[in-house]
Amino acid sequence: MTTLELKNNFIKLSSDVKKLAEEFLNLSYIQINWRPADSQWSIGECFEHLVRTNVKFIPVYKIYTVQEYENKELEFKPTLIGKLVLKSVMPDYNRKFKTPAPFNPIGSDIKESIVKDFLKQNNEITELVKIIDSSKLRKKITSPFSKFVKYSIGESFIIIGNHNLRHLKQAGRVMQNEKFPA
Fold first, then answer.
1. d(Cα 44, Cα 105) in Å, to the nearest integer?
2. Domain of 157?
3. DSSP string spanning 10-76?
4. Is 79 exposed, middle or buried (0-12, 13-18, 19+ CB in 10 A)?
5. Which of 50, 63, 94, 96 has the maximum number of C-beta atoms within 10 A of its C-beta?
6. Residue 121: pLDDT above 80?
7. Is the dihedral angle over the CA atoms 73, 79, 118, 59 positive or is it negative?
8. Is residue 182 part of a domain?
9. How many distinct structural domains can be found in the chain?
């Protein structure tokens, strides 16, 4: 895969994420904050988790943007750690993980604007990805979840996109619950 293909894959994934997220735009405050069970996240908590996680990547991406961008095609190869992290955030991966406290939205006051906030953030990240210097995509960054886990900037694109899909599907399951408020 080339760096250009990697960016284009993220942009496509980001577009898919946007379309899915827009399905939640017209929900009421009650619907956004309804939980199927005390231990399960509401739709709003799914979005809040994504906002809290994704915001950690924005300053890193800003460091590696360029003003006059050239689409240089460089070879891109994922690392072993990157592949393992990616596998764990894939939308259809069934194993659940304990969410670290700073990223766990349970008990948070979720605003009715959370879906709009997420869409705005998703757009900002997509625009940054478009102008990140391709030669820097192999540069290692530390995961916001663990200081012991490092993967490349390029891998973070795939991780973010799939992590977003995973939690949007989770939010969709909440909305499909037979007890979901009308």
1. 9
2. 3-176
3. HHHHHHHHHHHHHTTTT--HHHHH--SSTTS--HHHHHHHHHHHHTTTHHHHHHTB-SS------B-
4. middle
5. 50
6. yes
7. negative
8. no
9. 1
181 part of a folded domain: no
Q: For the whole model, what pTM was predicted?
A: 0.85
| Of 14, 1, 19, 8, residue with least CA distance to 132 | 8
Percent of the chain with pLDDT over 70: 85
**CATH number of the domain bearing residue 147:** 1.20.120.450
Compute the residue count for the chain. Answer: 182
Q: Is residue 51 part of a domain?
A: yes
For helices 153-176 and 3-22, the axis angle rounded to 10 degrees is 20
On the 0-12 / 13-18 / 19+ scale of CB atoms within 10 A, 38 is exposed
Residue 153 CA to residue 136 CA, distance in Å, equals 7
Residue 134 belongs to a domain: yes
The pLDDT tens digits of the residues spanning 2-55 come to 888 899 999 999 999 999 999 999 999 999 999 999 989 999 999 999 999 999
Pseudo-torsion of CA 67, 70, 73, 78, nearest 10°? 10
At 47, the amino acid letter reads F
CA distance 40 to 46: 10
